[in-house]
Amino acid sequence: xxxxxxxxxxxxVMTVEVIDTDDVKETLKAQFFTKLYLHxxxxxxxxxxxxxxxxxxxxxxxxxxxxxxxxxxxxxxxKYWALQLERGQRLVGLELDGADSNSFPVNPDKFxxxxxxxxxxxxxxxxxxxxESGVVSTQYAFQTVLKLSMQVARFPTTGx
Length: 160
What we know:
It is built from two helices and eight strands. Helices cover about 10% and strands about 40% of the residues. The chain starts with 9 loop residues before the first strand and ends in a 13-residue tail after the last strand. The longest helix has 12 residues, at about 75-85. The protein is mostly beta strands. The chain has helices spanning about 45-50, 75-85, and strands at about 10-20, 25-40, 55, 60, 90, 95, 115-130, 135-145. The strands form two sheets. It has a five-stranded antiparallel beta sheet with strand order 1-2-8-7-5. The protein has a three-stranded antiparallel beta sheet with strand order 4-3-6, with no helix packed on it. The chain has one domain.
């Protein structure tokens, strides 16, 4: 995403592909392809400062955990991520993190609140920063089962 952006601070684009329905269990299995866009011109500085919560391959990482000795949490890793983001690189496996469903940006595992069971990742998430526009973009692709009422008699009919 380059060039001018609108006055919006947050965009969510989602495509849903229905895989299967079960009328008896009143469930629907679907794949969700989501992209989030956030206008955050200071995002890279937030990452450099260790103030942005992130996940790497599904595990939460913070600058405070760098003392643990885990290589993915050390300061050089955060500097590398910040440098790659600053260059506009797409970092596969890196994603935004939040504590709960009220976190902003939203947690991908909280997108669909009527989900039954755990969401299954179908593509690795990625994170990208566009230095020209100041827009952070991230993608999540997952499959989940939804609990839905199958009482179609409630819907209006035509012709009678």
